[in-house]
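Residues determine shape. Next comes a sample protein:
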Amino acid sequence: MAADVPAWSLNPQLEKDTINIGDLPLSRVLVIKDANYPWLLLVPRRTDIVEIIDLSEVEQAQLTTEINRVARALQDITKPDKLNIAALGNVVPQLHVHIIARRSSDAAWPRPVWGVVPPLAHDPQEVEAFISALRRKIWLT
């Protein structure tokens, strides 16, 4: 990498709020540290990217492929009533895509998940089993 090209890094807030699962060709896959919802993030490993349209068309297509792969895996593992997929970035500007498995019985249903209930710590064994299943499904093993 050229000395004048900054290295990609994960936003400190995302680093604090997530567990790293691994890297797909474009994106880092993360689990949000909130057991209230099966909640994943995809963060393209590109510097200074805020919007999906900031990616090249090829990278946009790759991101769509990765969103589909991760969303299908999450759906298969969790059997939700609905998947929420969104790139908001109002609090953290670094481009990241939320993929959240929702159930009509969850604390926020049918509203968005943000700020409805405090984050719930994951049970270490349960989150490890969840991450292992995800890695297998999205080909990160």
Remarks:
- The CA atoms of residues 26 and 63 lie 7 Å apart.
- Strands lie at 18-23, 27-32, 39-44, 82-86, 97-102.
- Helices lie at 12-17, 57-78, 124-137.
